[in-house]
């Protein structure tokens, strides 16, 4: 059941403004943070209690992947803020920046396709975002389609929904009983044959070929039918149609050939690297902003914010609120160049409590230690407490100003959680690793 307007989520950090829609993962909402900034909140249909043990392992890997995705620094990637279980409903929640209008909606307003130069530039910006992600996550996106490529209010194209395809490996997280990664019409042949763990970026390249065809003609290169089984048969055996096959003269021969190369059934015959595809599309220097006015979507000349086709100014087109800023601390915090999570001598005795703070001056032999370069990021002076119990180590957030996260889930202050040797903790924006040796 969808949440009501005004309802809060993630321990009151976000208030629901309105329902944006529903998909295989769950419901999506526009929300307002406690600091007054806008965010998109995606909430799963399933709860932590409904997951099988093998699904929980997938979720742990997905949560770790989200921590990596949060570090991607590219103007062409939707920014993620946090992910974790809501403490009240036990549903999994992902929070991200409002990215703008997805290309599926752009197509709806374009009546048959968008200009060739615009479509090519949208694909260029998408692969630039994906290339930045590959360098961090080293995995394919696996769910590229017009639904998760966005045109921001500033005219920049961003790719989103990273990692959400991984949840499609978890049966109870989806609205369907079919475990299939991505949308059938956009999935490369190897996605059907090899399974989710064996595809690489070339599966995303194939999907971009389908997206480019759709942007140019509003049609698919291969009609896949209604079921995964029909899609399998079509994708493996039916030759794809390029844009000019579907609509004569809709694009140049160069673009037509580029699309067919992306749609090669054998991934070895596609582009050899993301960088090669970027080069074929003109390189990063060819990026241009796209007019966001409905029905126009022409490229905007470099150095100007006015579309020469329709005369619209990008600044005047109801900009979507930008990313959430880092929260300003209401009281002074410790700035630590090196943040240590230290287990002092004797701490293994049951009941010994260990507080983390500025610990470079700690005395005594360190029998367990993790360090990070915290730079100018902050941790609270008394952030967490670790305590040894009969059933293992527990961690408790002491009411810190910027939160403690374990497995990508925010800890409820003054509540104990089990933590095992080697597990990562995030204190605000500082990542540390808990290490304890008997």
Comma- or semicolon-separated keywords:
3 domains, 21 strands, Tumour Suppressor Smad4, Phosphorylase Kinase, domain 1, alpha+beta, 24% helix, four-stranded antiparallel sheet, Transferase(Phosphotransferase), domain 1, single chain
List the helices and strands and how they pair.
Elements: E1 8-9, E2 14-22, E3 26-33, E4 38-47, H1 53-69, E5 80-85, E6 91-96, E7 101-102, H2 103-108, H3 116-137, E8 149-151, E9 157-159, H4 164-167, H5 189-194, H6 201-217, H7 228-237, H8 243-246, H9 253-262, H10 274-280, E10 334-335, E11 338-344, E12 353-355, E13 366-373, E14 378-379, E15 384-389, E16 392-397, E17 404-406, E18 409-410, E19 416-418, E20 424-427, E21 430-433
Antiparallel strand pairs: 1-2, 2-3, 3-4, 4-6, 5-6, 7-8, 8-9, 10-14, 11-13, 12-15, 15-16, 16-19, 17-18, 17-20, 20-21
Helix pairs in contact: 3-6, 3-10, 6-9
Widest beta sheet: strand line-up: 1-2-3-4-6-5
**Beta content:** 15-25%
CATH superfamily of the largest domain: Transferase(Phosphotransferase) domain 1
The residue-averaged pLDDT reads: 76
Could you say which overall geometry the principal axes of the C-alpha atoms support? globular
Radius of gyration: 24 Å
Described by strand count, sense and barrel closure, the largest sheet is: 6 strands, antiparallel
> How many domains would you count in the coordinates?
3
How many helices? The count is 10
CATH architecture of the largest domain: Orthogonal Bundle
Write up this protein.
The chain has helices at 53-69, 103-108, 116-137, 164-167, 189-194, 201-217, 228-237, 243-246, 253-262, 274-280, and strands spanning 8-9, 14-22, 26-33, 38-47, 80-85, 91-96, 101-102, 149-151, 157-159, 334-335, 338-344, 353-355, 366-373, 378-379, 384-389, 392-397, 404-406, 409-410, 416-418, 424-427, 430-433. The protein is α+β, with helices and mostly antiparallel strands. It has three domains: 8-96, Phosphorylase Kinase, domain 1 (2-Layer Sandwich); 101-316, Transferase(Phosphotransferase) domain 1 (Transferase(Phosphotransferase), domain 1), CATH 1.10.510.10; 334-433, Tumour Suppressor Smad4. The longest helix is centred in the N-terminal third of the chain and has 22 residues, at 116-137. The model is unreliable at 167-180, 317-340 and 342-378 (pLDDT under 50).
């Amino acid at each position: 059941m969808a949440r009501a307007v005004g309802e809060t989520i993630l321990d009151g950090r976000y208030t629901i403004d309105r329902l944006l829609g529903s998909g295989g993962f769950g419901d999506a909402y526009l929300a307002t943070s406690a600091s007054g900034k806008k965010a998109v909140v995606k909430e799963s249909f399933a709860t932590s209690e409904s997951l099988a043990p093998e699904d929980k392992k997938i979720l742990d890997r997905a949560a770790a992947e989200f921590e990596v995705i949060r570090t991607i620094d590219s103007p062409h990637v939707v920014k993620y803020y946090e992910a974790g279980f809501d403490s009240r409903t036990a549903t999994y929640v992902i929070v991200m920046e409002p990215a703008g209008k997805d290309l599926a909606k752009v197509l709806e307003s374009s009546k048959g396709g968008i200009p060739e130069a615009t479509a090519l530039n949208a694909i260029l910006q998408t692969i630039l975002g994906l290339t930045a992600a590959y360098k961090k996550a080293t995995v394919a996106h696996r769910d590229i389609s017009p639904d998760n490529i966005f045109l921001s209010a500033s005219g920049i194209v961003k790719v989103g929904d990273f990692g959400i395809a991984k949840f499609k490996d978890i049966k109870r997280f989806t609205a369907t009983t079919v475990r299939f990664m991505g949308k059938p019409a956009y999935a490369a042949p190897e996605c059907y044959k090899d399974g989710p763990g064996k595809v690489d970026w070339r599966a995303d390249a194939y999907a971009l070929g389908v997206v480019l065809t759709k942007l140019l003609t509003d049609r698919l290169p291969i009609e896949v039918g209604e079921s995964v089984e029909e899609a399998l048969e079509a994708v493996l055996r039916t030759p794809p149609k390029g844009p000019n096959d579907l609509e004569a003269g809709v694009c140049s021969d160069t673009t037509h050939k580029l699309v067919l190369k992306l749609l090669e059934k054998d991934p070895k015959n596609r582009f050899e690297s993301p960088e090669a595809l970027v080069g074929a599309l003109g390189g990063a220097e060819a990026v241009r902003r796209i007019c966001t006015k409905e029905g126009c979507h022409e490229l905007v000349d470099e150095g100007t914010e006015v579309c020469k086709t329709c005369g619209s100014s990008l600044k005047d087109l109801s900009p979507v609120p930008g990313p959430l800023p880092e929260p300003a601390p209401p009281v002074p915090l410790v700035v630590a160049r090196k943040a240590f999570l230290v287990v002092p001598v004797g701490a293994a005795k049951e009941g010994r409590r260990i507080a983390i703070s500025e610990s470079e001056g700690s005395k005594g032999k360190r029998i367990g230690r993790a360090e990070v370069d915290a730079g100018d990021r902050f941790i609270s002076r008394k952030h967490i407490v670790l305590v040894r119990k009969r059933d293992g180590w527990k961690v408790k957030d002491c009411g810190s100003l910027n939160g403690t996260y374990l497995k990508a889930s925010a800890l409820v202050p003054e509540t104990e959680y089990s933590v095992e040797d080697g597990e990562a903790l995030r204190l605000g924006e500082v990542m540390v690793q808990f290490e304890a040796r008997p």
